[in-house]
Amino acid sequence: MADVLLRDVRKQYGSQAVIHGVSLELRHREFIVFVGPSGCGKSTLLRMIAGLEQVSGGEISIGGRRVNDTPAGDRGIAMVFQNYALYPHMTAADNMAFGLRNVGTPRAEIDARVAAAAKTLQIEHLLNRRPSQMSGGQRQRIAIGRAIVRRPDVFLFDEPLSNLDAALRVQMRVELVQLHQRLEATSIYVTHDQVEAMTMADRIVVFRDGRIEQVGTPLEIYRSPANTFVAGFMGAPKMNLLDARVAAVSPGQVEVALPGGQARIAADGRALTAGASVTFGVRPEHVRPTSGEGVFRGQARAIERLGRETLLHVVGADGATLIATDAGDSAVRLGDTVTLAIEPGHGRLFGADGMALPSTAASAA
Ligand SMILES: Nc1ncnc2c1ncn2[C@@H]1O[C@H](COP(=O)(O)OP(=O)(O)OP(=O)(O)O)[C@@H](O)[C@H]1O
């Protein structure tokens, strides 16, 4: 079993605290993605789990064993880095074998493991090449191979696809998830790319400033962000967030005044009174141009034609922007005045503290 447990884990560099007490339980065979903006501490936390950084406080355990003081090599983990970290003077095969040789694994065993990993990753034809004779994608496969041959209980990935071009990233994303399933290991994957987080994770952990903002499945995080930070960070394009006032509260429902009309949201508004300031959030795919009544009116200032659909950036009189979705062959032109409506049943409300109000809908936002 390779559960990973973090209990009130802290990190200080001198007087600067960068991880403020993170508690998290990662289950055996889970694919967990740490995501958050640059500098939020996700790499530091991963490096502490790996044993490459000292823990300043709290406890880390892997497979039921406290590892705070266990050297990296004895933790049953293998790490894959963004910059591959291969030895330039060694062949791919030697790079993959290096760690095993160091711990005295018998030659025949090393050869068998390298051959098996090479087959899994389809890199058999690269085994005699040096890193300089390979593309970025091929080098990353070798780095992943080096991790696999160690048969770790836990794989740690630190932005492993960031140096690859867009098409290769998509392909490697799929391959890494398949590999994770085949190897039956626990994986922790750090990225600042929320598309990677959405597409790869069993559960996502969203960080900000050394603290966890939310933990959940990709759909939980997407549909029910816990606060305005997560709402604005996850999703491409991100969730629209508009200042609004509460018009009326009834059981299980809140009516809010938006610049061009009123919207009803299935939320528990017992903590609110009429006139209170709230933030109204709605995903662009639930906002459509209409020739009838809407909740927002403004000018199309930017139009993104994506083929399958068109994104309209509509700016209201007070400067607020709402991104809406129209058909691929949208007739809206730059500068047109557009009225927008929200699909019934969608929308999420956040209180003055930025925290989401409990949704009363079967499926939120
Ligand atoms: N060795 C160090 N000494 C001092 N401060 C550090 C050190 N390493 C990291 N930090 C600080 O800790 C914070 C978290 O850094 P970390 O690299 O973990 O962030 P991150 O979320 O992984 O960011 P990125 O996506 O840019 O890599 C940052 O403010 C960074 O400046």
Automatic annotation (TrEMBL):
Location of the ABC transporter domain: 4-234
Keyword field: ATP-binding, Cell inner membrane, Cell membrane, Membrane, Nucleotide-binding, Transport
Pfam families noted in UniProt: ABC_tran, OB_MalK
Top-level taxon: Bacteria
GO molecular-function terms, A-Z: ATP binding
InterPro entries linked: AAA+_ATPase, ABC_transporter-like_ATP-bd, ABC_transporter-like_CS, ABC_transpr_MalK-like, ABC_transpr_MalK/UgpC-like, Mo/tungstate-bd_C_term_dom, NA-bd_OB-fold, OB_MalK-like
Name of the protein in question: Sn-glycerol-3-phosphate ABC transporter ATP-binding protein UgpC
Organism encoding this protein: Corallococcus macrosporus
Taxonomy of the source species: Bacteria, Pseudomonadati, Myxococcota, Myxococcia, Myxococcales
